[in-house]
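Hi support team,

I've been running sequence recovery on a batch of backbones for a student project. Most finish fine, but this one hangs at about 90% for roughly twenty minutes before it completes. I'm not sure whether the input is malformed or the queue is just slow. I've pasted the structure tokens below so you can try to reproduce it. Let me know if you need the job ID as well.

Thanks,
M.K.
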């Protein structure tokens, strides 16, 4: 019998400070009605000064360990594009703060697709026999990287962290990841980019431009690629594992824009009622978006043990990835206030 990676705990959190659409419209030229109708977002949470991505990750990780009922893992995989600093990685500090001892920990950068990439890495570590349990965290703070002049990014992004504990188990049991479909396309690397801090920007030999510190995004083009890649990857995965779109109880896509998710569902001939939405309350939380959405839906009972769940994600890189599982019986705490 082959070894599978099985989801056994989940947890997520957002920072305290809620920023609604009316507050965003005091910062850039926009309004609540436009943001709701064009994105589906009503509010998001931004970290206070002094709070880092690692701080959020520690809390999400603690909740996931509690949900799994364990206090040790063999590896921490931390998906983020906004680490505490470029070097060292944030994962070792997260492992230490969680009291996990001198286990390996590393960061993984795949933008908004990072959490699915993290699940893939953890699954490989478990399948190879080198790990029994792995903590996978997706966390990002983009609020400090938003161009004050750019209404496209200001309206979308929120901060947050989500985590899952995976354990070795049986491929047939609920929670076992049924397979993965991952991909990337560097030809479109400039569609979403944060230039500052990398070797390309430093080796230019020119002074840092203010704009290099901010996330630049070509929203319309990203929209089209996001639909194509999430639909294509989801379809490829379903074919590979022998599931049909009509089998799905929940379609959990990266929470960037409700119109993107509904269009993906339409392309796949999936019922829009099966699209899990969480972005209305937290915005696009990048690598945290999938575990935040899952934790929220598990906490409020939308996700039930035995449900067939497809996860699919897309982000800068370009990077995308999908996986699927039968939802297990896991405890979850709501990551954000409901009202
Ligand atoms: N508030 C008010 N009006 C706005 C606006 C805002 N925040 N942003 C754009 N507009 C205006 C534009 O000026 C334009 O007006 P015009 O028709 O008079 O020229 C109109 O609204 C449409 O603009 P457009 O850029 O075509 O909007 P859009 O429907 O593409 O929505 C995004 C913009 C950013 C919300 C959308 O493209 C998107 O979600 N893209 C994907 C982003 C993403 O997923 N990022 C995460 C991965 S990096």
């Amino acid at each position: 019998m082959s070894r599978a990676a099985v989801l056994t705990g989940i947890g997520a959190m957002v920072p305290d400070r809620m920023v609604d659409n009316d507050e965003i419209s005091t910062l850039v030229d926009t309004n609540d009605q436009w943001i709701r109708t064009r994105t589906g977002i009503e509010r998001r949470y931004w970290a206070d000064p002094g709070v880092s991505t690692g701080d959020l990750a520690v809390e999400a990780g603690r909740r996931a360990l509690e949900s799994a009922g364990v206090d040790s893992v063999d590896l921490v995989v931390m998906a983020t594009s906004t680490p505490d600093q470029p070097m060292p990685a944030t994962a070792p500090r997260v492992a230490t703060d969680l009291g996990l001892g001198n286990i390996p920990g590393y960061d993984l950068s795949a933008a908004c697709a990072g959490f699915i990439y993290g699940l893939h890495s953890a699954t490989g570590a478990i399948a190879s026999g080198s790990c029994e349990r792995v903590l996978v965290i997706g966390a990002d703070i983009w609020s400090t990287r938003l161009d004050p002049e750019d209404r496209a990014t200001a309206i979308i992004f929120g901060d947050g962290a989500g985590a899952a504990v995976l354990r070795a188990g049986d491929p047939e049991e609920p929670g076992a990841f049924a397979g993965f479909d991952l991909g990337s396309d560097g030809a479109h690397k400039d569609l979403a980019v944060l230039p500052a801090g990398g070797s390309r920007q430093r080796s230019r030999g020119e002074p840092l431009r203010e704009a290099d510190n901010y996330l630049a995004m070509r929203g319309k083009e990203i929209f089209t690629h996001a639909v194509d890649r999430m639909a294509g990857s989801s379809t490829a995965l379903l074919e590979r594992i022998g599931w049909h779109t009509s089998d799905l109880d929940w379609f959990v896509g990266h929470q960037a824009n409700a119109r993107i998710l509904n269009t993906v569902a339409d392309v796949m001939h999936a019922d829009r009622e099966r699209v899990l939405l969480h972005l209305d309350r937290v915005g696009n939380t990048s690598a945290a978006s999938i575990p935040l959405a899952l934790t929220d839906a598990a906490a409020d009972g939308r996700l039930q043990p035995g449900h067939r769940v497809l996860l699919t994600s897309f982000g800068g890189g370009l990077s995308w990835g999908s996986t699927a599982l039968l939802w297990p019986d896991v405890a979850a705490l709501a990551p954000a206030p409901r009202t």
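--
Follow-up from support: It reproduced on our side and the slowdown came from queue contention, not your input. The longest helix spans residues 219-241. No action needed from you.
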